[in-house]
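User: I would dearly like some help making sense of a protein record. I have put the entry right below:
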Amino acid sequence: MGDYHDDHNAQSEEELGRLEDSDQEVAREAERERPRGRFTDPRELPRPLYRIKAPHSNETFYAYFPPDVSAATDGASGDLPPEADTSDSDPDAPVVEAMVGPRSYVVVPTRYGRDVCELQGIIVEPGPTSKDEIVPIERIATADDLHKVEANRERERKAFETCKQKIAARNLPMKLVSAHYLLEEPKVLFYFSAESRVDFRELVKDLVSVFKIRIELRQIGVRDEARVTGGCGVCGRVLCCHGVTDKLTPVSIKMAKDQNLSLNSMKISGPCGRLLCCLAYEYGFYRDARRELPNEGARFQYDGVAFRVIEVNALSGSVKMSGEDGRLLDMPSSRFMRIDGKWQVKPEEETDRTE
C-alpha cells in the first residue's frame, strides 16, 4: 500500500476510534482462534492435509482422509472431478484421494455438526497446528448429499424470512445475517449481529414452535458478518475476509498512521464499518522498515545546518528533510546511521564506499 498523507481530511481520535475493533470483539475473535491443544510436530500430522471451507460461514480448517474412509465413498457423486493432481500427496495415502480434486465437496464433522464442506486443496506447509484442530473427512459428498444441500437453500431462504419477522415482532436489537440447515441433523443455525448481548430466549421459543426442530442462534461481530455475506472492497475485489482468508486480525489506527495513510474514515474503513484488513497485512513491512529510518520530527546537523525530518516514505526508503536555511532535501535510507542513539547523515563519499 503506497504512502499517502492527507491532513485536510483527518478526523478526531474519538471518531477514528470507532473504526477499531471493540475489546469484546477482540476477545471473541481471540477465543475463536485459540488452539484447542498444543502444537503438534509437523511430522506427526496426518498427510496429506486439506483445507476445508464451510460454505455457510466461510470458515476454513484442516482435514484429512482416514485410512478407512474409502469404504464410505461408495456411490460418490459422479459430478465430482474424476481425478486430481496428487503429486504432493503421501504415496501411502488412501486411494480415495485420486477421486477428489480442488473444489470438490466432502462430508465432515464441523463444530456446528456434520455438514457438506468444500475441499479447497492440499496444504503443503500447515504451520503451527494441533491435532485437535484437524477433522477427519467422513466421505466424499454423494449426489444425494448435494441434492439435499440444494433443497436446503430454499428452506434457508424461508427460515431467514420467518426469523426476521419474529425478530421484528419482538422488537429485538439484532440484525439477522444468515440461516443454515445442517446436512443430517435436525437443527437450523441463525447468525446475527448486535451491538451488545441480546436476550433471545423468547425468540427461540417462537422459532421452535414454527420449525419443530432444534434452534441455535449465534451472535457474530461485524467483521464476521462481512466474512459470511461477502461483498466488494474499495479496491474493486471481493472482500479479503470472504475470499482470501477467514483469519480476522484486529486492526488499529496506529497501523494506518505508521503507513502515512489518510486518517479519513471513508478511505481506511471497509463495508463492515471497521478498519481495512489490508492495513494489518502490510503493517509488519512498514514497522520493520521504519526501524531503519528516523522518525518524523527528528533533528540533526548536516552540512553545518540544523535539519528536521518532515516526511518518511518507508515504501521507497526515502526521507524528506527541511533545513533552517530553507533547503528541502530528499535522501535515501542508506545515508542514515544511528550513533549513540542519535541519527546522523553519512558523508556522501562514505555512502559511495559502503555501496
